[in-house]
């Protein structure tokens, strides 16, 4: 594949991910809560066959914990993916540490703008805690992307220098 076309696809996928995050953030609080509730209930019924027989206090505790894990896990994972895609799109930065830092910075900046955007959405609020979760996910995603890049670079060098 032509390198310019490949580079175009890297950026297109990164922009598509930004668009997905923007669309999810544009959902009113009620829609977002309903999506989370549906997923949490599916997880609960998968993990606990006798959930309805448990005491109400235990049901509430499990539901609350899973809701937090699902909602914050979504923040973490979507920004991990965003930073990984940014790491790929910033292919022109040959120093991997600098590319990693730029990827994390870009994703963290997008997290800030996303939380600000949510202040204009009915029932939603921008939260600094979410920016921190997003940024932590971005750091994780960029590190994973960097490790993958190092692995494939080493693999290519070994394969190229192999006599077999």
Describe this structure in words.
With 164 residues, the protein is mainly α. It has one domain. It is built from 5 helices and no strands. α1 runs antiparallel to α3 and α4 packs antiparallel against α5.
Coarse shape: globular
Largest sheet: none
Tally of helical runs? 5
Structural class: mainly alpha
Uncertain segments: none
How many domain regions?
1
What is the mean predicted local confidence, pLDDT? 92
Distance between the termini: 26 Å
Overall strand count: 0
| Quaternary structure of the protein | single chain
Strand content: under 5%
The SSE string, one letter per element, is HHHHH
Helix content: over 70%
Task: Provide tags for this entry.
single chain, 5 helices, mainly alpha, 164 residues
Give a concise summary:
The protein contains five helices and no strands. The chain is mainly α and 164 residues long. The mean pLDDT is 92.
List the helices and strands and how they pair.
Layout: H1 3-25, H2 29-47, H3 56-89, H4 96-118, H5 128-161
């Amino acid at each position: 594949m032509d390198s310019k076309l490949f580079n175009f696809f890297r950026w297109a996928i990164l922009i598509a991910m930004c668009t997905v995050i923007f669309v999810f953030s544009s959902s009113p609080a009620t829609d977002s809560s309903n999506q989370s509730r549906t997923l949490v209930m599916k997880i609960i019924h998968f993990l606990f066959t006798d959930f309805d027989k448990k005491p109400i206090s235990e049901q509430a505790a499990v539901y609350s914990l899973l809701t937090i894990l699902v909602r914050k896990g979504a923040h973490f994972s979507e920004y991990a993916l965003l930073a990984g895609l940014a790491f790929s799109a910033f292919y022109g930065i040959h120093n991997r540490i600098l590319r990693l830092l730029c990827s994390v910075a870009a994703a963290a900046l997008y997290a800030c703008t996303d939380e600000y955007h949510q202040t204009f959405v009915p029932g939603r609020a921008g939260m600094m805690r979410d920016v921190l979760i997003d940024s932590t996910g971005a750091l994780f995603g960029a590190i994973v992307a960097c490790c993958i890049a190092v692995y494939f670079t080493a693999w290519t060098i070994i394969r190229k220098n192999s006599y077999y």
